[in-house]
Amino acid sequence: MPGAGQGAAARPQRPESPEEPLAREDLLLAAAYVSDAQYNRNVPFETSPQAIRLYYFYNHWTMQAITYFFICIDLSLALFEEPALFPLPFLLTLIDLIIYGSLETVNIHSVRWSRALRPVFLINFPESRQIRRAFRSIRNTLPDILYVFLLFMFSVLIFSLMALKLFGDRGLKTVEGSPYFTNILEIAFELYVLVTTANSPDVMMPAYDFNWWYSLYFITYIIINTYIFMSVFLAVVYNNYRKHLKNEIRKLAYLKRHKMTEAFNILKVKMDTEFVVKEAPWRQLVKVVAPDISSSHLELLLRICDEGQKGYMDKTNFLRLADLLNIQVVTINVKTHPLETWLPRVYQSAASLLIQKMVRHRIFVWVYDVIILINAIFIALDEKNPLISYAEWLFLSLYIVEILLKLYTYEPRAYFGRKQFWNWFDTLIIMAALVAMVANATIQSARKYNSQQILDIVLILRILRLLRVIVSIQRFRVIVTTLINIGPTMLTFGGLVLVVYYVFAIIGMEVFHGKVLFFDPNFTAPGALVCGNPALEDSIFAQSRYCRNNFNDLASSFIVLVELTVVNHFTLLANGFALVTHQVAKLYFIGFHIVVVILIVNIFIAFILEAFFVAYSLEKSEVETAIEKKIQELGVGVQEEEVQDGKLIDNVDTKDCGFSGDDGDNKRKSLKGLYFRIASKKYRTVDALLQRMFESEIAPEDEGPSLDEILNFSPSDIYPKNPNFENSA
Amino acid sequence: MPGAGQGAAARPQRPESPEEPLAREDLLLAAAYVSDAQYNRNVPFETSPQAIRLYYFYNHWTMQAITYFFICIDLSLALFEEPALFPLPFLLTLIDLIIYGSLETVNIHSVRWSRALRPVFLINFPESRQIRRAFRSIRNTLPDILYVFLLFMFSVLIFSLMALKLFGDRGLKTVEGSPYFTNILEIAFELYVLVTTANSPDVMMPAYDFNWWYSLYFITYIIINTYIFMSVFLAVVYNNYRKHLKNEIRKLAYLKRHKMTEAFNILKVKMDTEFVVKEAPWRQLVKVVAPDISSSHLELLLRICDEGQKGYMDKTNFLRLADLLNIQVVTINVKTHPLETWLPRVYQSAASLLIQKMVRHRIFVWVYDVIILINAIFIALDEKNPLISYAEWLFLSLYIVEILLKLYTYEPRAYFGRKQFWNWFDTLIIMAALVAMVANATIQSARKYNSQQILDIVLILRILRLLRVIVSIQRFRVIVTTLINIGPTMLTFGGLVLVVYYVFAIIGMEVFHGKVLFFDPNFTAPGALVCGNPALEDSIFAQSRYCRNNFNDLASSFIVLVELTVVNHFTLLANGFALVTHQVAKLYFIGFHIVVVILIVNIFIAFILEAFFVAYSLEKSEVETAIEKKIQELGVGVQEEEVQDGKLIDNVDTKDCGFSGDDGDNKRKSLKGLYFRIASKKYRTVDALLQRMFESEIAPEDEGPSLDEILNFSPSDIYPKNPNFENSA
């Protein structure tokens, strides 16, 4: 078997999801298929090779669902284990207990550390590229950040020493009456916390009360450590994030090029002076790689690759295949409205046309914006008033009428198009509100009682409707679109945070479980005011009624960790838990701060900055790949980026008219009535955009470095030897 | 008079400080001089034109000092005016009072708004380019940020409505027992404050105690508004900052090019086929523009411009003149040590050479690092112990010995070179500590009493000495150098913050003056516990002993504003002041948050990020301008970037040896014994670096757009039509 085939067989371990535009899987497949084809050059193409079948099996949605399902089970185990929200019956946890219990009986009081490692599954499966990248980012940033961190800790220690000397002997007292700044370790902790700003200005007040000038010490500290060092952390994290992002994208782009070249070399035949791929093997290749492709789609692709209809294509055109297959081409049949087909006379009557014109008119949108604003005022008013309660039904009916009118005017399948976010949003909100209100009314009339849960849902749905006003204002839409655009990636950050939270929650539950108890506020249990722990007597923790902030189950732990991420009252929480366990417990909180606030939150900020910068730099210009241009040239693409959501349908109509005047071309005629929409530019990810930018900069004949070199690309050689003005600032 | 002269006469309004490397003043001068010269072509060059004399007069340090002095007086007026730290005797404030009083008598109770406008002077004078840029940044960012802000406020309002509906009717109570989330305005305020994180998790606790699920509402709010929106604000501010920074730099670079071309056109004479400038007028030009230039320096410049010693220079070489004049060329006479001159026998004796070798050795540095660490431990120990107190004298003498040894080994003028930051730091700290300790000992023995102020100073100096350890560790030095590098610019940010604080402090003093009083903690005045204001009874403000946080004088106001900038306990402060005045007072605090935290702090972060990114992208590569290369080629430059602070002198010695082997060249010989040091790269500003990058990208023959076009450059056309991979992420 030739080397290429072996290579392909040996490297199918990391196929990326088919949604991703980076196309590695296609390249793998092409290489695998092609090498196979070469090996069995006489065998018919019908039987698709096993690797491809396995690939599709792996990528099938059911398999994905099963993977997620098991991950969920794995992670949710903590909900049922001992510090549990919902304790499980004994038998179910039997197996786990047998292992744990057998260790217990031989007197090994093991802490089940494996629990903290569970979320590792979440990182190590292929769909979570962003999570893995963030983890790699963290790992790669560590050496750089370590030195900044050491310097920062050095600075904290220097300031602690100063504080000890300046304030230690003054006999000052804090508000709680404890001695102020007498122990160097406590000072260092307080000053570390001051970096999180969580104890400002309390930590300063005793010294400030004593002498005005001492405030300068704290202001200097805050400027140096809180502002400058924290910004430097962000700079280091951001710089690393950017560097590794670029390196990865470069790697992916070169890998793609490399594999496509390999595929070409296998399929190529010599034609005159150059090597080409003939139409027949190309068609077979596409059919094997994408078995479900429609014949019109295949025709379109061929038309793009083999522009001159010569029956073969050169290397440059062949290399595009992976990208072409990755472009989500939606075939739109610009159809007439179903009502027009069924009841042409009624739909085309004067009254009907007037309604359609009305709905399409700008004033229609404005009228509904005003209605939404009036609705907002009604919501703010007291809803005990029955009149207002009835008004709510009126508003709901108005919204339903709006949707019906739109469906009457626009083609329903276009209205509920894949990317029509706001139309979907609208309809779902209204429908859900309708269902919930009807359900509530039924319950109310039957049992004279309002279901609290349903009421809450109705309320939230009612208010979410107000979001629609945003869509009408152009400037808002741009920001919201960018935010929606980066939404999916933000969700993967949720995954990253989940992993870290999970680890810290498990550790927290091991350490603090049961130390702080929460009693119902209306129930006057004896220990209620001290959270069931005498150690908390007179503590601010108990005074502030923080008893519910505990590590008794996974959910509560997560909420405490959210509070710690927000950082405010960090000391209050840390001191509270230190009181019920041991002062060393503070290390847990400092560790959490370093990992989550200094590293992860900064990576999150870096990610949002990057996404907005890419969005800004694309706002003014257009990076179009050759492929898209070709689709445009053929006149069968409906460019979507100019089209506003919710107005798409109008535009499709317009384009339709434009096309009808086309002059003849056999191929084009054969595609007529069918339009291809390129997946909207607005919804592209930062990754995809960057990859296109990079690819547009490497020459078509550039085959890139060797595979080993590609795999060993280092982020540090990303920087050009002479940085230019544009990229440096 | 020709147009060029008029132009020069009409535009001397914004000369920049001579320290700035952007060289506009030189260009202006060149143009002015040259046009003048053309006008009086027969007049001898001796009399320098009036414009240049005025320019030097304006830029003389005395004039600068006078400007700063009056600005200080202007700003410090607030210290002596009515809510005053040091009340002035009546007569001195007479004139001011007459104006104010006469208005008072005719019953116009005017608030003296002019006071809040005073700091405008600080912005409007030429040395504060960074402050003005930051202000321009703010002004230019406003439209962009406005839409984000509106969207953000919309989101806050939507969430407020939800909170009102979800929690308003539950009858929940806050910790203080007041009703929870019943008034929409209060909810909006609380939720706005939650964005600052200042009331987390307190604002959530009542709802969380009531039902676990309600915490999801707050977590959603925090993710959307605190994390995402705040990052978007940073992205918008940063993007604008970057855009305007680049635009300004482009403008400056083109202006320079434009003016130098103008100057060339006036001086040029035709030589064969090309226009050139002859040596004689060039010499005159330099002498007029820089009257104090040393003849060796002039010779060096000529040698660089007229490389072939042809007696004239072409346009490209002439255009360099402004840059050449701006390079701080320090002439170093690599001299022998003064002791060697005076006592050659002793200094060259075996013992002396051993000492010198010892001091130069790496172990010498390590020994002193260990001493410093031991010193740190001693400081941390109790200093009441007389042994430790004596040890302090020992350490001080060790440090003095170190400095003396270094001065013995290294040439003193090189040791105290302009950029030898750490040598200066060392010596000043040690000398100050010596003086303070001696002063304290004298006072102690004379009056048996320790002066508190002197002791504090001694303590701080003693601890600052520990900073020296940083210098020994390479990785730390890089970070510290970058920080020191951007230090001066950070100071100008201090100016910006000062301006905004001043305005807010004046307004705060008008509104809150005298409402909150501070009593000495040891003095049990009747109102001490409620800060002298019954309205604060039972308030957390008084309970937390925040009485000193008031607006009774300028200094206290500034400290409160610092506390508000740090954001923590924002609610506590805002609620406190709202209690003593009116709920509307909260608007003052929200306004301050928007201006300072959302705008200025973000600009500060943007600035630090930018500075570090430029530093990082330069780390790997070197942007050398032709000028520096030429100086290097001539072999008379001592490149400093490889030279570590504190080790400079060694290197100079080395270079000296290297040079002595030079083979003959008349010009070079004439310069021998004299070395030019280019102002260290490490200490260059971001501006200067960016300008060089930009200039290295415009072709020498490119004269740039017309003057009007240059002045009307807009930041929006900075972006290239096709952003490339490097600059987009």
UniProtKB/TrEMBL annotation, chains A, B:
Residues 92-243, 361-617 form the Ion transport domain. InterPro entries: Ion_trans_dom, Volt_channel_dom_sf. Keywords: Membrane, Transmembrane, Transmembrane helix. It is a multi-pass membrane protein. Residues 700-729 are annotated as: Disordered. It is found in: Membrane. Pfam families: Ion_trans. The chain crosses the membrane at residues 61-80, 85-103, 145-168, 218-241, 363-381, 387-409, 421-441, 453-471, 483-507, 558-580, 587-616. PANTHER family: TWO PORE CHANNEL 3 (PTHR46726), TWO-PORE CALCIUM CHANNEL 3 (PTHR46726:SF1). This is Two pore calcium channel protein 1-like isoform X2. It comes from Erinaceus europaeus. The lineage of its organism: Eukaryota, Metazoa, Chordata, Craniata, Vertebrata.
